[in-house]
Amino acid sequence: MDDSSLKKALGHIRVLDLTRVLAGPWCAQNLADLGADVIKIERPGAGDDTRHWGPPYLKDAQGRDTSEAAYYLAANRGKRSVTLDIATPEGQDLVRRLARQSDVVLENYKVGQLKKYGLDYESLKQEKPDLIYCSITGFGQTGPYAQRAGYDFIIQGMGGFMSITGERDDLPGGGPQKAGVAISDLMTGMYSTIAVMAALAHRDRTGEGQYIDMALLDVQVSMLANMNTNYLASGNPPKRWGNAHPNIVPYQTFATSDGHIIVAVGNDGQYRRFVEAGGRPELAVDERFATNPMRVRHRATLVPLLADMVKTKTKQQWIDALEAAGVPCGPINNLDEVFENPQVQARGLRMDLPHPAGGMVKLVGSPMKMSATPPRYDLPPPMLGQHTEAVLREVLGESEERIAELKDKGIV
Q1: DSSP annotation string for 118-145
Q2: Most exposed: 26, 110, 140, 412, by fewest CB within 10 Å?
């Protein structure tokens, strides 16, 4: 192992990535950021579906649109793209050989679909017993819904998220609301990353590989956290509260004289300082509002009083006053404001990488900050099939003649 690999947490790991769209690619990108060699297998001529999910598209050095959709760019940096037709016997053989040279296989095909190609876990395990094989589907490998296709939007509804997200039904605009990003996909990618890392640690101790069965619905239900336990403790399904909190008051957005702020009061002392900053100290000693349980019970009376109080100052006046008083608060930023924020800039979340289509690709870096093996950004999101020849030569030892033959047959 060379010195550069030692500086990468997963520099000794190769991942064969048979996933597309978001959940699987998000997992694979995490592993790539941590130094794994990720080989992304794509359909010849088409590739990952998200390559075409635009506009917007990456622009070249002359400002012209390329073929690379911004959606695809979000989840595929650090990988090598190999085009390969797995529906053909020769393509299947190449995947099997690549799996033998890999530590991890990721896939998000429908349940049982890869078995007919001999690319399922049981088949590949025969050739590489210590293989870690992670399947990502909508509903998992078992249960009455296992054969259903899983889409993030549907999972957000089925898994309970939309029953607790959105404005209250009795208010204007009330009703179920999905998240602004595909949270069940992204969280499944994150949980899959954790599972793969745990399986690698187990393999390193015991030499044993294993199968990982990840499902969007499982993840969506699990990630409801305290809302789950609120229900299990009370027997009452939680309701939508919009930007308010079911257990804490005040913990919501308020309109100022020129915009909105978030006030996240976590204890009675913070509440007292909040109303004192607004010139309403009597609201802290009123027995209906003195403690959080009482404020929750009398929310309908208190919140309108607080709303009137907040409207008396500007957004920046409130933020300055509450920060000085030690009351958690913040603005509601659009993405222009996010990337102009000095804290976001100081943390290095924005980055540019040179791209083979010309110009630079603007990306958001990993939030993982590690002192010895920080994330590395050695490769931009690859062009379709950009690394096919290099991987076939370097990993499988194929000759130029054999690669040319595979191309002529449309296998790669």
Answers
A1: T-SHHHHHHH-TT-EEEEEESS-SSSTT
A2: 110
